[in-house]
Specification:
about 250 residues; alpha+beta; 5-stranded mixed barrel; 6 helices; LON peptidase substrate-binding domain-containing protein; Lon_prtase_N; PUA-like_sf; Lon_prtase_N_sf
Length: about 250
């Protein structure tokens, strides 16, 4: 079994292959990670793994506070993730390639990364300044009837967009050309839908593209039906995620 060792960046969100992730890096453990990544030659990928947090805190407490004002804040690579960090994370993560790492004058970083491939976490090492993970790359199996399913998902996704735009009393601006490659469709729709983290994680770790598309088709139909009966929805962007304040 071929494995890879990568810096590990836990977030309260799911990154999908092909999707862009902006990061505002200010915690020292992640600043150390970015300083190390900057040592990689510019013509080589600056890779790290983004994993969704199952149980823990994206930002470790840095001062005493409620409920115990006398508690000493946690320090170190695993701060906020308990004594066994592997148990705090979902097992399937996404490799990110940092196209831009810009250090600000105050030592924080502005990072723009893109998801590339999926991996399965095997172990997590907290002995260094930041977490690293030993991981197994996951191949993307198309599964059965992925092409036909992708066509159905795209039709349902366009209907979902129209309903969502109508619920916000806004014009539809995200109906531009959409890809037709089944794997790309499955990840784009997973990222663009308004779903909670556990559901997005379920889509990320689907055993194959066809299974992910089948799940998305059910979700799109259910979500579209719900939106039809709602007078309005929160004004959040459909295809733009928040910049992580990790």
């Amino acid at each position: 079994m071929t494995t890879v060792r990568l810096p590990l960046f836990p977030l309260n969100t799911v990154l999908f292959p092909g999707l862009v992730l902006p990061l505002n890096v200010f915690e020292e453990r992640y600043r150390a990670m970015m300083r190390e990544l900057l040592k990689t030659p510019e013509d080589e990928p600056r890779r790290f793994a983004v994993v969704a947090i199952r149980d823990g805190h994206e930002v470790a407490p840095s001062a005493r506070g409620l409920p115990d004002p006398t508690a000493v804040p946690e320090r170190g690579a695993a701060a906020g993730f308990g004594t066994d960090p592997l148990r705090a994370f979902h097992k399937v993560a996404c490799v990110a390639d940092a196209a831009t790492i810009r250090e600000r004058a105050d030592g924080t970083f502005e990072v723009l990364a893109t998801g590339t491939t999926r991996i399965k976490l095997l172990s997590v090492d907290a002995s260094g300044p930041y977490l690293t993970a030993e991981a197994e790359p996951l191949e993307e199996d198309p599964g059965d009837e992925a092409g036909a399913l992708a066509e159905g998902v795209l039709r349902s996704f366009r209907q979902y967009q129209k309903r969502l735009a109508g619920a916000r009393e806004r014009s539809l601006t995200t109906g531009a050309d959409l890809p037709d490659e089944p794997g790309v469709v499955s990840y784009l729709v997973a990222a663009a839908m308004m779903l909670d983290t556990p559901t997005k994680q379920r889509l990320l770790q689907a055993p194959d593209t066809a299974s992910r598309l089948r799940d998305e088709l059910k979700l799109l139909r259910a979500e579209t039906a719900v939106i039809r009966h709602l007078p309005s929805l929160p004004a959040v962007e459909l295809t733009r995620g928040p910049t992580s304040q990790n």
